[in-house]
Amino acid sequence: MASAGLAYPDRFYAAAAYAGFGGSPQSSTAGASRFQNDVALLLYGLYQQATVGPCADPKPRAWNPVEHSKWTSWHGLGNMASTEAMRLFVKILEEEDPAWYSRVPELAAESVVDVEMLKPKVEPATVSASENGDSLPDTKTISTENGLLLETQDKDVVMEGLGLVSIYDQWVAPSVSGQRPKPRYAHGAAVVQEKMYIFGGNHNGRYLSDLQVLDLKSLTWSRIEAKALAGSLDSSTTGSVAPSAGHSLIPWGNKILSIGGHTKDPSETITVKEFDPQTCLWSNLKTYGKPPISRGGQSVTLVGNTLVIFGGEDAKRSLLNDLHILDLETMTWDDIDAIGTPPAPRSDHAAACHADRYLLIFGGGSHATCFNDLHVLDLQTMEWSRPKQQGATPGPRAGHAGVTVGENWFIAGGGNNMNGISETLVLNMATLVWSVVATVQGRVPLASEGLSLVTSTYKGEDFLMSFGGYNGRYSNEVYVLKPSHISDLQSRMIEGPVSDTIAAVLPTTNTSRDMELETEGAQDKKIKEIEMDNGDSELNIRNEETIERIVESLKAEKEELESTFNKEQLQNLQIKQELAEAESRNTELTKELQSVRSQLAAEQSRCFKLEVDVAELRQKLQAMEALEKEVELLRRQKAASEQEALSAKQRQGSGGLWGWLAGSPPPEK
Questions:
Q1: Distance (Å, rounded) from C-alpha 141 to C-alpha 119?
Q2: Among candidates 399, 444, 447, which has minimal Cα distance to 421?
Q3: DSSP label at 543?
Q4: Measured between alpha carbons, how far is 347 from 576 in angstroms, rounded to an integer?
């Protein structure tokens, strides 16, 4: 039940005033005490989302539980559109207080009737009666042209941007405004905060460097005059952005990463650049480890906090099939040597990740041929495998693009060296079953090589958006496809048992799990209280218990992540302290070593001098020994002389006696 007397946004402001929120965008007070705390917090978050927008306030301190709870309620709504927040606010108020409208004095005279919402398949409406007997107001016939809603059925239905796409599983060219970008292919595309960014590409053999953005709310093109920082992030010098093609754009938080790409003056190793939409500046990120060689046409897949890079074509046009991983937290490269048979060297292929564990590589081309093979890499065991595919077998192609929605991998575009590929395929990554989603006729941009494909969510529904490409002509067209519910896709898949090969490679899942992942937001894991009724596009909020359970689950998950983050920060701090201590000890030991080396050199010098002194003393000792020998010889000679003199004297004495006896005279004295 909704009041038909007021249209949005007046109905929202009336409900906000009744609930105690002031009834104006400037009011930010808490809800009235007539509601339970959890309901009041949810209403507060929706009110802030509707009047202010996504939460950008810093998280309050833990010692202020009231402000902390209000911030959590608001922040948990993510990027929900303001119009949707208004409708949810009124819906919750009607569930809590169905008679609120009659209690507002100035609105008491207004009647309360049912309002029929838009349905995907529109037929001329007639006046009918509801189950409770209340008559419905006359509705207008809604015509469609190319799948776009041309007229709204009820004046409170706010349709804008992607909401104008009314049909499922068919490519639609929406009406866009603003100056369109130059036609191109081999560019990069990424969605950040409900805006699609297009960077670089190739046009007539020339690389481009412009950055274009399409506002998905208003479908309006605009150009960003981006600059490049010269040197490090701390540098204030800016310059022009280098043209590039064949690179990969990856959204990371509120920023965009550009990896690789062909340039006029290629570097030796692959470059990683970051664009900040707030400052409109490009900057080169410093990485560690051994980076891969420069290349273009590679695949870059975001898996948790890492980027997995495979294949591509280097600056010399040599094809590659190497595998590298970049940790975005430490910005460190890791060269992976996987086991098993890897895919053949290729470029312009598509890659996706399933269950944060399995890397899927499909298609691509070499210089002579195109591929339609599917390879799977187990990121835990680092082993390649080639499982069996089921369903509508895709043909060979290169230059195609792919995006994932839940467990479904959508593939669009590409070529096979003869013509463009006209069909859009989807692969259920849990069962490896292919099916055809849509087929285009003629020479249209969707059957092109080098187009980009991104996904965005609007009012609980997923949308695929393609841009650009080349099929003999360069394109700058935007096409949108709204895939039907996952159960509808599965109903068109070829039935058959899951093969043992698939079961051995990927974990099997059933339909109920697929629907659970889809409805609980497997892609962005945010609040999705809205679900589509059968054949009806009316957006209904889940009941209070479901909302509480989802909010509590999100809170618990958030607290767990914050706890893990705090632990990691503490560990990093401890490691830094240990590293600082180790460096200090290393410095001290280095000083001690230098001191010991100096002492050792002094001791070596002293030892050398002592050795010289010892040699001199040995020479003196030898001289003394020679002198002693000479002295001993002289002593012996002296003793011999004395002995000889004594003998001679004795002989003289004995000769005088015998001479006297003989009568000889004694010798004269």
A1: 11
A2: 447
A3: P
A4: 41
Say how far apart CA 185 and CA 246 lie, in whole Å.
9
Structure tokens at 459: 């009012």
Looking at residue 657, what is its pLDDT? 56
Contacts of 63 (CB under 8 A, 6+ apart): none
With the C-alpha atoms ordered 507, 511, 512, 516, is the resulting torsion angle positive or negative?
positive
Between strands 238-239 and 295-296, the pairing is unpaired
Write phi, then psi, for 387 (nearest 5 degrees): -75, 165
141 CB burial (10 A radius; 0-12, 13-18, 19+): exposed
The DSSP string of 204-216 is TTEEEEEEEEEET
- Token readout for 577 is 């302290």
Contact 407, 361 (CB under 8 A): no
Single-letter code of the amino acid located at 117: M
Q: Is 560 helix (H, G, I), strand (E, B) or coil?
A: helix
Question: What is the value of pTM for the model shown?
Answer: 0.55
* 3-state secondary structure (DSSP) of residue 106: helix
- Write the pLDDT tens digit of every residue in 259-310: 999 999 999 999 999 999 999 999 999 999 999 999 999 999 999 999 999 9
The residues, ordered by sequence, that sit 6+ positions from 317 with a Cβ below 8 Å of its Cβ are: 367
Structural tokens at position 457: 């969510």
